Amino acid sequence: MTMAGDWSVRGITRRLFPLLVALTLLELLGGLTLDGFEATLTRYPSLLVLVPVTIGTAGNLGSVLSARLSTAFHLGLLAFEPTDERLGGNAIATLLLAVTVFPLVGAGAWAITWATGTATLPARTVVAVALLSGVVLSVLAVVVTVVTAYGAYRLEADPDDVVIPVVTNVCDVLGVLVLFGAVRVVVG
Length: 188
Prior knowledge:
Blueprint lengths: L8 H27 L2 H6 L1 H30 L10 H31 L7 H32 L4 H28 L2
Helix pairs in contact: 1-6, 3-4, 3-5, 3-6, 4-5, 5-6
């Protein structure tokens, strides 16, 4: 499959500008959503520390998966089929990485607030919130990454130009929603 051929800065900018505008609007939605949880963040400082790290880590997991899928796509090694071992293996690796990283993120967030004397939630609660939100976010990051990579493939766009911006921005917004969903489940 050939991709759009104008590789100049102007050509890439022309193709990506509408996408970047839409992603900017999506980020505004995420910020407004985060603002709606100000009272919860003020009440539980550990969660305030957890917000940027959780969002960033989810975006990073999606970006790593995106880069791996994009490379496999360019090498002609990726088939967008449920039986594709490369696709499945990378998705499973992303989920396993989330299961190992997010508890550490939660423990770190709790340790920071404990060190500053502002920890109001027990460590196990903060770790549980981080783990639950991390697992859900990693599943969503995998879905968003695969769907976006497949969409880029179908539209003959370069996944290197499209997938990482989409994944990181969507994971920012999903990160806020999922984190506070996990807070409601775990903390109440």
